[in-house]
């Protein structure tokens, strides 16, 4: 059997030895959204570090655990903390939690992240519904032997972000922006020339996550949607140097609005 799938099955069996909980939706909580997990009527939490072979997030402020429970009546699995390629993990490891939530039953994936806006049209504090992504600057999580149990060798990516779910998000808050998210490797922020490059290619926002997760989710048949919290102007869009502090401060400032959007959206799923 495929080595990645063997690891997934081991992790799946470990979780099933603890809980029979079946999430309908999976939510990845990005910067500033971790506290949304407090709004979930939790049935069970499981630390990534307790799951053998599971990648553990090393970023400050990322808790690194699954929260299984209910938002309204909807059974959800929330990831409090994600795993990034820049932490030294392979793309396959970075998407292991997504595949696992799919195996546990999740049909829908809601991705959130912090991102830099590549033009003055997206200001710090804006929330952007992700309509499409550019992932070709980072390695695909689908390379290597295909996991046939999850999906096909050559999955279609012409509609990664589910139109109906995205429209539903947009209808919930008239101030939401929409655009294309570009995943870059990180952990260094981009140079102004790199930001101009991806802007020319059609990217409205840049970040270090999300696209590989979305691709893996489509591969295993999930419906995907996503929201970026624009925490800063990307490098060169303004004169200000970038810092993780600014990213966190903006994410914290917007977190109430972000949280209520995601919570209301999730409660209406199902
Ligand atoms: N670039 C990359 N990742 C980010 C940024 C950025 O400007 N802001 C938040 N995450």
Class derived from helix and strand content: alpha/beta
The CATH class is identified as Alpha Beta
Radius of gyration computed on alpha carbons: 17 Å
Low-confidence parts, pLDDT < 50 over ≥5 residues? none
Specify the oligomeric state.
single chain
Question: How many extended strands?
Answer: 9
Provide the spatial order of strands within the biggest beta sheet: 5-8-7-6-9
What string gives the helices and strands in order? HEEEEHHEEHEHEHEH
- In whole angstroms, the N-to-C terminal distance is 34 Å
Query: Hetero groups bound?
Result: hypoxanthine
Task: Determine the strand fraction and express it as a percent band.
Answer: 15-25%
Structural account:
This protein has one domain (3-267): Rossmann fold (3-Layer(aba) Sandwich), CATH 3.40.50.1580. It contains seven helices and nine strands. It has 270 residues and is of the alpha/beta class. The longest helix is centred in the C-terminal third of the chain and has 24 residues, at 244-267. Helix 1 (3-18) crosses helix 3. Helix 5 links the parallel strand 7 (177-183) and strand 8 (205-207). The protein has a five-stranded mixed β-barrel with strand order 5-8-7-6-9, surrounded by four helices. The mean pLDDT is 94. Bound molecules: hypoxanthine. Residues 114-116, 189-190, 206-208, 231-232, 234, 242, 247 line the site of hypoxanthine.
């Amino acid at each position: 059997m495929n080595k990645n799938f063997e690891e997934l099955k081991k992790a799946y069996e470990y979780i099933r030895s603890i809980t029979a909980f079946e999430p309908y939706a999976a939510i990845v909580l990005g910067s500033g959204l971790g506290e949304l997990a407090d709004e979930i009527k939790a049935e069970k939490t499981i630390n990534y570090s307790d799951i053998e072979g599971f990648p553990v997030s090393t970023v400050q402020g990322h808790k690194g655990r699954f929260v299984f429970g209910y938002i309204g009546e909807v059974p959800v699995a929330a990831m409090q903390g994600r795993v990034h390629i820049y932490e030294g993990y392979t793309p396959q490891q970075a998407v292991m939690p997504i595949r696992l939530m799919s195996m546990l039953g999740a049909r829908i994936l809601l991705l959130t992240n912090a991102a830099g806006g590549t033009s003055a049209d997206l200001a710090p504090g804006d929330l952007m519904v992700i309509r499409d992504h550019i992932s070709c600057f980072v390695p695909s999580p689908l390379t290597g032997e295909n996991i046939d149990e999850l999906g096909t060798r050559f999955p279609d990516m012409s509609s990664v972000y589910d139109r109906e779910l995205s429209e539903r998000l947009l209808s919930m808050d008239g101030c939401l922006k929409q655009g294309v998210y570009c995943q870059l490797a990180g952990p260094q922020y981009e140079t102004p020339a790199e930001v101009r490059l991806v802007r020319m290619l059609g990217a409205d926002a840049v970040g270090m996550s999300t696209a590989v997760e979305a691709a893996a989710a489509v591969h295993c048949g999930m419906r995907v949607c996503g929201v970026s919290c624009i925490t800063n102007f990307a490098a060169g869009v303004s004169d200000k140097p970038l810092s993780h502090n600014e990213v966190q401060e903006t994410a914290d400032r917007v977190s109430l609005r972000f949280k209520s959007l995601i919570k209301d959206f999730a409660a209406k799923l199902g």
